[in-house]
Model the fold of this input.
Amino acid sequence: GAVVSQHPSWVICKSGTSVKIECRSLDFQATTMFWYRQFPKQSLMLMATSNEGSKATYEQGVEKDKFLINHASLTLSTLTVTSAHPEDSSFYICSASGQRRDTQYFGPGTRLTVL
Amino acid sequence: SQQGEEDPQALSIQEGENATMNCSYKTSINNLQWYRQNSGRGLVHLILIRSNEREKHSGRLRVTLDTSKKSSSLLITASRAADTASYFCATDAGNSGYALNFGKGTSLLVTP
Done:
């Protein structure tokens, strides 16, 4: 149990376009979802925390107008990278927690390459 | 913000040997978790140790936590080539919706 999926697993896009990444909890209700970003050979950096039905809380330095997060249901959160630039190329990982808030289940990640 | 620091950054051992990775953190925590990540893949949760626990075992994994020193260690015994991966510690202070702060990770290479 406690499976989190991400779609797409990888995406290549042109500079200036927008890309949407979906994060789904498949077999549990995720009251909170987290979005992380990981650059090559580096650690995961928290971008934002989202609770179902409310606005996401962004970490310092993360542009909320560039990284749009929507947590519309208890099983789905989306991250939209707007007007993507090559420096946005990264590995984006989501995680979700349910009733046990101290346990997060991670998705497999989405590799974004912006040309 | 990132607060965990793993040591060493990279570790290379032979199969059968034990691998020890250390993690230090800066602020008070509710719990500390260790994760594994194979190259370019998602995270696999290994073990969670709470702030009131000192040691925990899971199969070939042994985790210790010293809250007075703000440090933790992960020991993998009788390592296998399949243990080759990056290992991260992550702390949860419970004051930001239980978001995790990840350390920089230790890259472990186990050679046959």
